[in-house]
Write a structure and sequence with these properties.
Order of helices and strands: HHHHHHHH
Shape: elongated
Number of domains: 1
Radius of gyration: 23 Å
Number of helices: 8
Largest sheet: none
């Protein structure tokens, strides 16, 4: 059963290799942005806790320093939320650039392979249709698989970072998080 869920990811290594060969810089940017995108939501949650703690402290003590600290944490959270939005935009840009470059690369590979084939291959309508379909999906299929793989990694990083925060609060809360994440994990694997 688990093998069925992960079956589609057996080609992830080849797809990542193809994307890596297409553009190392963009692949590294994709990796870095995915890691940051996985860590920042937990950082936003942690700063939210610090805001609440600072506000409670400011209300108890009435000191200007506690009020200033609360406002400082609000500013930090605003910057983190802007960073989350920026990372999502940057991932979109990287995805678009990789799609264009990957489409060109795969089309060149298909055409190079076509040059090695005999005329009888092109007379076979089924073969020609598959080759045409491969050219049409050249940029979308491999990149989609890579994006889903990195998305799964990003979600895993978020889950682990939230788990670390919840573990400090309660082991039962961590167990609840893991149980709640299982259906979403299964759904993501099935969509791939």
């Amino acid at each position: 059963m688990i093998r069925d869920y992960f079956g589609v990811y057996r080609y992830s290594g080849r797809a990542v290799s193809l994307v890596w060969d297409t553009s190392r810089r963009l692949t590294l940017a994709l990796i870095g942005l995915s890691i940051a995108g996985g860590l920042l939501p937990a950082a936003v949650a942690w700063v939210g806790k610090l805001i609440v703690d600072s506000v409670v402290s400011a209300l108890r003590t009435g000191s200007r320093d506690a009020t200033h600290q609360a406002l400082t944490w609000v500013g930090v959270e605003m910057l983190l939320v802007v960073a989350v939005a920026g990372i999502q935009r940057a991932l979109g840009v990287v995805r678009s650039l990789l799609r264009a470059l990957l489409g060109n690369r795969v089309n060149v590979l298909i055409l190079e392979k076509a040059l090695t084939l005999e005329l009888s291959h092109f007379e076979d309508s089924e073969f020609y249709d598959r080759m045409t379909q491969a050219r049409r999906e050249a940029s979308s299929r491999p990149l989609s698989l890579v994006m889903r793989t990195f998305g799964l990694v990003q979600d895993g990083i978020s889950l682990v970072s939230y788990g670390g925060l919840l573990l400090a609060f309660s082991g039962w809360a961590l167990l609840g998080l893991v149980i709640a994440a299982i259906p979403a994990f299964i759904a993501r694997c099935q969509l791939s």
